Amino acid sequence: MKLPLFLILATVPALAFAHTGDGPHVGFLHGFSHPFSGLDHVLAMVAVGLWAAQWQGRMLWFIPMAFVVVMGLGGLLGMVSLPNILAEHGIVLSLLILGILLIRRMALPPGVSLSLIAVFALSHGYAHGNEMPSDISLLGYASGFMSATVLLHLIGIGLALLLRNRGSINWLRFSGIMVSGYGGLLLLQSVIA
């Protein structure tokens, strides 16, 4: 009796599966997973959160929010498929500079900080937009990679605030060394290639 039911379900896959593989949920999930597909994106997004946590008051939240908004604009630019070379260099520079800022525990003036964040956000957003598959929902994909970025920023902020209350700040410098070191490796790789 069980075998005929299995055969019926196997021959009618739409009855056996909840999702068909198309629609906006695929765009969101694909966009959400994209920032996690490369260590460069993960490190840069967490580093933005770590660096933002060095600020007091509104700037703690304004830096990551500005990043997400400008990254969305960069994503739209990337979707029109202009050359991606500037985005790649911007991503490498974001790792190098954010890493150095973390190592030195530097808080730049707000205007300079927001300008740097805007350049980094455009680069990362452009890369996300440029790599968007053409057969998925634009809105779903963009909201996915923007949501993942917010999550990674919050992880960085949370780590910074948690560890700040737990002892020395050498861990922050160590994280900066890791971020800028990875950026240096990417830079070396691009020079060699």
Describe the structure.
The protein is mostly helical and 193 residues long. It has one domain (22-192). It is 78% helix and 0% strand. It is built from 9 helices and no strands. The chain has helices at 2-11, 13-16, 24-33, 39-52, 59-79, 85-104, 110-130, 138-164, 170-192. Helix 6 runs antiparallel to helix 9 (170-192). The radius of gyration is 20 Å and the shape is globular. The N and C termini lie far apart (62 Å). Mean pLDDT is 83; it is low at 5-24.
General shape: globular
Helical residue percent? over 70%
Poorly predicted regions: 5-24
Main sheet makeup: none
Into which percentage range does the β-strand content fall?
A: under 5%
- Report the strand count: 0
Structural class: mainly alpha
Work out the count of structural domains.
1
**SS field, number of helical segments:** 9
N-C termini distance: 62 Å
Tell me the radius of gyration.
Answer: 20 Å
Mean pLDDT equals 83
H-E string: HHHHHHHHH
Blueprint of the fold:
Elements (H helix, E strand, L loop, with lengths): L1 H10 L1 H4 L7 H10 L5 H14 L6 H21 L5 H20 L5 H21 L7 H27 L5 H23 L1
Short description:
The chain has helices spanning 2-11, 13-16, 24-33, 39-52, 59-79, 85-104, 110-130, 138-164, 170-192. The protein is mainly alpha-helical and 193 residues long.
